[in-house]
Amino acid sequence: MTKSTRLAAAALATAVLATACSQGSATRDTSADGGKVTLRYFTFSAAPDHVKDLDTIVAAFEKENPKVDVVVETAPYDQYFTKLQTSIAGGTAPDTFELNYENFVTYASAGSLLDLGSVAGDSAPAGYAKESLEAFRHEGKQYALPASFSTVVLFYNKELFKKAGVAEPTASWTWKDEQAAAEKLTDKKAGVFGDFQPVQFFEFYKTLKQAGGEFLSADGKKATFNSPEGIKAATWLVSKVGKTMPTEAEIGGTADYDTNLFKSGKLAMWHNGIWQFSGLKDVPFEWDVVVEPGDTAKASAVFHNSVAASKTTRHGKEAYAWAKFLSSSNVAATTRIQSSWELPPVSDQAVLDGYLKDPKPANRQAVFDSLQSIALPPVIKRQQEMQDAVTQELSNAAAGRVSVEEALKAAAAKVDELLG
Q1: Which of 268, 286, 299 is nearest to 197 (CA)?
Q2: pTM value?
Q3: Residue partners of 217: CB distance under 8 A and separation at least 6
Q4: Burial zone of 106 (CB within 10 Å; 0-12 exposed, 13-18 middle, 19+ buried)
Q5: Which of 170, 175, 223, 224 has the fewest CB atoms inside 10 Å of its own CB, making it the most exposed?
Q6: pLDDT for the residue 352
């Protein structure tokens, strides 16, 4: 499921998370009798395309740490946080688990995470890109280690462009260029759509930035996205529905609808993340990527994932060792690069340069070019509720139930309530 379209189920209350911190971990503790330590790791990004890659990293870690067994557990993103929160509340939290940047603040604020510096004796571990490491600090403590990052780019089907006689996208494209091309590429009789960009939170905050707007006030206490720039951004998304991209009814709640549409050769342009590269290796047509078009400015979404440890784990040192290995070891970095499993947040540029050697897609440089204009998601304590509220109101506008202006006004009111 794509990161742009997948949304976790409603979050449990932060108070529940905090209460759970006093409960024990379900970790099997065999170290007392000289046996191995079993360390549970829960992840959403490995399955289904990178389970074998994760197995490679686990095997290398266990070879270096023969007294530790890492047991991997996976769940789809749309189920992951519900399961994680339930396990924390029930006292069966995994020792280590994956957290994305957007949800990190909720867990850190609730007291659910182990201060990794307290077991490592190192509050600023070396080897990471500075910005990535700081993204997972909270109130001066390192509660997670950055494990990967990825960007969103514009995928396009070269054959559909050639067939329609439309020039391929370039890094200088604007929304108007994209719209003009999408209209020419759309052929509903043939089941071909010119564009796909989900109408939801993750796309809105980014297009808002492209339009020159801001999601929250400078002090973070008030929603400011129901502005002229916000209306322009939301209109840009909504205007595609039913014209150059499928409607909500046509999608029908089908999982990975956009992924399958692109793979079938029926989608000309697709706003999605670089985590899709490995799954497109064998499609029977030529495709490439380019930095997403902007409006008054360029702005690319960048997603960070991390490895955190439960505050209740009985094996803090082992948990830290695994988190450090998974996030910054040479084995982990090269495995991610070779398999196109996002990118490691390491400071060694020579490691990242290897990413460009893979010939598909040809324009991998766009991944690094997109980092020149980053749009990070707004983050609040009640993160999931905010994301759901914005997505719900935008969906109402996309379905024609309310106007864009009404949708943003309602969404802003909900977000203001969440901000308290």
Answers
A1: 268
A2: 0.80
A3: 223, 224
A4: buried
A5: 170
A6: 80
**What does the block give as tokens for 54?**
């994760």
* CB 343, CB 332: distance < 8 Å: no
Check if the beta carbon of residue 61 is closer than 8 Å to that of residue 68.
Answer: yes
The answer to whether the CB of 304 falls within 8 A of the CB of 321 is: no
Separation of alpha carbons 329 and 310, rounded Å:
21
For residue 303, the one-letter residue type is F
Q: Which of 34, 397, 61, 56 is nearest to 230 (CA)?
A: 397
For residue 20, pLDDT over 70 is answered with no
Beta strands in 266-337, from DSSP E residues, in sequence order: 269-273, 287-290, 300-309
Rounded CA-CA distance 184/192 in Å is 11
Does the pLDDT value for residue 271 go beyond 70? yes
**Is the N-terminal amide bond of 198 cis, ω within 30° of 0?**
no
Contacts 24+ apart (CB under 8 A), 403-407: 404/231, 404/234, 404/235, 404/238, 405/226, 405/231, 407/234
Q: How far apart are CA 269 and CA 248, in angstroms?
A: 18
DSSP 199: -
Paired sense of beta strands 144-157 and 374-375, if any: unpaired
pLDDT in tens, 21-44: 323 333 444 444 468 999 999 999
Residue in this structure with the two tokens 């742009």, named with its chain if needed = 4
- Give the mean model confidence (pLDDT) for residues 220-229: 97
Question: What gap in Å lies between CA 207 and CA 146, rounded to an integer?
Answer: 25
Looking at 43-152, list the stretches that DSSP marks H as alpha helix, in order from N- to C-terminal side: 51-64, 77-89, 101-109, 116-120, 130-135
Confidence (pLDDT) at 381: 87
Is the pLDDT score of 403 beyond 60?
A: yes
